[in-house]
Amino acid sequence: MVQYTEWRSISDGSIISSIPDSVIYHWPVDESSGSTITDSEQNKDMDLNSPSWGDDYGYGGHYLHFDGVDDLATASNESDFEGQNEITVNFWFRSDSDPDSDLSDWSNAFGITNDGGSTSAGNLSWLFYIDDGRDEKLLWRISDGGSRSSSIGPDWDDVFDGQWHMITGTFEAGGDVKAYLDGDLVESGDATSSMDSVGETLNIGGNEDQDRMVEGDYDRPLIADDGWSESKVSDWYDQTKSDYE
Fold first, then answer.
1. 129, 148, 203, 208: which has the fewest C-beta neighbours closer than 10 Å?
2. In angstroms, rounded to a whole number, what is the distance separating the alpha carbons of residues 38 and 10?
């Protein structure tokens, strides 16, 4: 049985939702304004570089819009962001445009990479990204030194359609990497034996050099210290989807 912990609003302390106990970082994005988003689990707030606030959808009625040019959300590195034997990364996303229109402008959606945003082995810990040299997908990848996991994910036509979608990636060292869309498993592949620790910042919306960016709306990113099961991902989708309908 999945264990949940109640989460209370930062504005009035009321119980709004509950999150799985394995979640170690959770940014609800319910502030509605300001230059940071608050982590409800370990006070690891993310700094905002220019994204705008939206208020017609999302958890708590708010979300962040990234322009695909220079908007970023960043957090300085923590040891349990990366280098783990298991991890789950989850966020809600709505696209503004189709990567078919100008794929060269798209790359880092959410992840930990070197400053240049390279997706090569040894330059990242984990990452959601788009690569114009690979299949037409939003890809999820883990890196381990000179090797890397399978690059897997949903077809981008199913993601970049102007609708809200829940994106999930899981990793279990020596086992599988799995990618989910809206609570459903879409692809799995071979995992690496471990995960790199590259010591770089956690970024949403692009890379620190701001030359591999993604345009769209983001809400409620989280990181868990286990590889969620299919039922756990599905349960989380069922619990959160009403905020995006």
1. 208
2. 9
- Give 118-177 pLDDT, tens digit per residue: 666 667 788 898 876 666 788 898 888 767 778 889 998 899 899 999 999 999 988 899
Instruction: Look up the CATH number of domain 21-244.
Output: 2.60.120.200
pLDDT of residue 9: 47
Supply φ then ψ for residue 237, to 5 degrees.
Answer: -65, -45
CA nearest to 20, candidates 243, 240, 184? 240
How many CA within 13 A on the CB side of residue 182? 12
Contact 20, 1 (CB under 8 A): no
Calculate Rg over the CA atoms of the chain.
Answer: 16
Residues 6+ apart with CB under 8 A from 93: 109, 159, 164, 165, 166, 167, 216, 217, 218, 219
pTM of the full structure: 0.89
**What DSSP state is assigned to residue 240?**
H
Residue 187 tokens, joined: 């692809």
41-47: list long-range contacts, CB under 8 Å, 24+ apart: 42/78, 44/75, 44/78, 45/75, 46/73, 46/74, 46/75, 46/202, 46/204, 47/73, 47/74, 47/75
The alpha helices in 162-229, defined as continuous H runs, are none
**Cβ within 8 Å of residue 84, ≥6 positions away:** 171, 173, 195, 225
User: Residues 41-60: pLDDT tens digits?
Assistant: 998 999 999 999 999 999 88
Residue 105 confidence (pLDDT) above 60:
no
